[in-house]
Design goal:
The protein is mainly α. It has a domain at 25-55. It is built from one helix and no strands. The protein is rod-shaped and about 95 Å long. It starts with a helix and ends in an 8-residue tail after the last helix. The model has no long low-confidence stretch (mean pLDDT 90). Keywords: Membrane, Transmembrane, Transmembrane helix. The chain crosses the membrane at residues 7-25, 31-52.
Amino acid sequence: MKALVMAALVVVGLFVAGSLVVWALHALFGVLFYVLIGALIVGGVVFIAGRVRKSVGGSDRRQLR
């Protein structure tokens, strides 16, 4: 009887530990996904702003004085 209770506690403990690991990985990958999307958006805005600045500024050569 005691061995059965111990086996049940081990199974419950493994289930709880596995659930916590899955929850933590899900949260970590969720955060990484949003950081990646944010970095792509910021990079795209910086790229487009640079292109617009070059097109509005005219020549990209430095003028001799």
